[in-house]
Backbone:
């Protein structure tokens, strides 16, 4: 049976696998920095690209290669590039696809460091950027300049849970010959595949849902076709932000349960979101699985499910939010997301603290916004924990 023709869950288990010399049933960890050549001519052929043999782990490695092939299959892309972190993926994309004088349009509520590194560092090298609410297609159109090179969206947005219409975004980008990039971290390819909508490049912080166990940091870039991979892979190699083989092994292991974990966590998240929406101390809740979400219908159309990320604000604002976060007992007060454990955090003072205050507020990241990553614990226990913590809020 051709592995390209099997279902998503079967790909999670079997895609990217290769037969090693001992017939291992799992992908072996090739924890080595360098690889022995058969001869001087073999080494020369490997460096010349005439042989696909392995050379040096910064360039290629069997364990990492297996993960890359697996993620390319899951995202329906040409090829994938594993990086040492999600920000390694972001910087590979920026450095590889943008030149001095180019302009990028991006989601205003994008992951904080992705915006900060562009505004504070790439601007020094002549790259211009504009951040808009990409849920409104007209905002994208109005932001386009003669030198605009890239449209970079994150959907759902971190942490506002705003949804960008992927199909419409690609349509606008193609009218103006723009490169399209999507941060698909919040969904994973289980819930959403931007390449299917025509996006050129998709990336993830593997640290989150793909690995799912809060024990590694990593990133992945998936290109729609060879032309983008030919640019991005050498850039990753030259930046030196390659993934480690043991990291890759752990992600491969975590990916085998991706659909099971996400089914459970979004089932829990739906229950938690309804609980919060009905609670008298909660001002508002943003969750794509609620009818009250502004892009509920769009999310239902382009996502397989609503996911397990929730943002909300209490009626008491930031002081109330702090009281809640300081009194949870089951959920963990920590940044990151997408693991088996429930995590709660405050974006304005944590993950998005380096953004200018005005930019945060324009992006919908209020001082009182709380971000909640719902895990796979018993839903009743998660809700009971939030309930007792809310009782401590004045």
Residues:
């Amino acid at each position: 049976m051709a592995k390209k023709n099997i279902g998503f869950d079967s790909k999670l288990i079997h895609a990217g696998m290769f037969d090693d010399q001992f017939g291992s049933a799992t992908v072996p960890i090739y924890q080595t920095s360098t690889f022995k050549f058969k001869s001087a001519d073999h080494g020369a052929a490997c460096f010349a690209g005439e042989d696909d043999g392995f050379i040096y782990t910064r360039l290629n490695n069997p364990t990492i290669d297996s993960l890359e092939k697996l993620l390319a299959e899951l995202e329906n892309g040409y090829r994938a590039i594993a990086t040492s972190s999600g920000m390694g993926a972001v910087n590979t994309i920026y450095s590889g696809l943008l030149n001095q004088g180019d302009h990028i349009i991006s989601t205003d509520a994008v992951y904080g460091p992705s915006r900060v590194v562009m505004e504070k560092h790439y601007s020094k090298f002549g790259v211009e950027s504009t951040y808009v609410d990409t849920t409104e297609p007209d905002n994208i159109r109005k932001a386009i300049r003669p030198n605009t090179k890239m449209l970079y969206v994150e959907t759902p947005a971190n942490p506002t849970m705003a949804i960008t219409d992927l199909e419409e975004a690609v349509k606008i980008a193609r009218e103006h010959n723009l490169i399209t990039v999507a941060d698909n971290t919040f969904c994973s390819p289980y819930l959403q595949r931007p390449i299917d909508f025509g996006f050129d490049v998709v990336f993830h912080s593997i640290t989150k849902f793909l690995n799912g166990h809060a024990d590694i940091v990593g990133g992945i870039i998936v290109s729609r076709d060879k032309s983008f991979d030919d640019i991005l892979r050498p850039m990753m190699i030259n930046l030196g932000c390659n993934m480690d083989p043991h990291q890759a092994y752990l992600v491969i292991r975590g990916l085998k349960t991706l659909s099971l974990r996400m089914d459970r966590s979004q089932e829990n998240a739906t229950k938690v979101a309804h609980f919060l929406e009905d609670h008298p101390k909660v001002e508002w809740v943003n969750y794509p699985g609620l009818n009250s979400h502004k892009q509920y219908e769009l999310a239902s159309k382009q996502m397989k499910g609503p996911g397990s990320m929730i943002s909300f604000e209490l009626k008491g604002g930031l002081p109330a939010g702090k009281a809640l976060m300081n009194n949870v007992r089951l959920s963990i007060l920590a940044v990151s997301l997408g693991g088996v454990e429930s995590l709660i955090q405050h974006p304005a003072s944590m993950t998005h603290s380096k953004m200018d205050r005005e930019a945060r507020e324009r992006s919908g990241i209020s001082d009182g916004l709380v971000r909640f990553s719902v895990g796979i614990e018993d839903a009743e226990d998660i809700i009971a924990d939030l309930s007792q913590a809310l009782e401590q809020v004045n």
The chain has two domains: 3-30+61-255, 259-390. The chain has a mean pLDDT of 95. The CA atoms of residues 160 and 368 lie 12 Å apart. The first strand starts at residue 79 and ends at 83.
